[in-house]
Write a structure and sequence with these properties.
With 119 residues, the chain is mostly helical. The protein has four helices and no strands. The longest helix has 26 residues.
Amino acid sequence: MTMLSGTRPLRKEAASENRASLIAAYRRVRERSHEICAPLETEDYVIQTFQDVSPPKWHLAHTSWFFETFLLAPYEKDYAPFHPAFAYLFTADCETVGTFWPRRQRGLLARPTVREVFD
């Protein structure tokens, strides 16, 4: 049986269905994110137009960070993060999860590259 935080044990079949559902949901979010960003040029991904509005690159990476942090790492034995710096750079202002790059400086991040974030 598999346990999800705050839930009762799941049958192996139900856990597998739940896993497939979560993966499909993540892929839909990622696909939609790609559609929204399609008109952008690479330089557009890092512009922070206002101190409290994060750039597109940050939002793309944050979605992946969230999926890794809350859905993969706790439930996948021996899970290794995609990129060691993502946890610090792309965590939301959530001090319970760890330290994070200041929101007002997200437009200053030249690295990781937009390509690395898409990967």
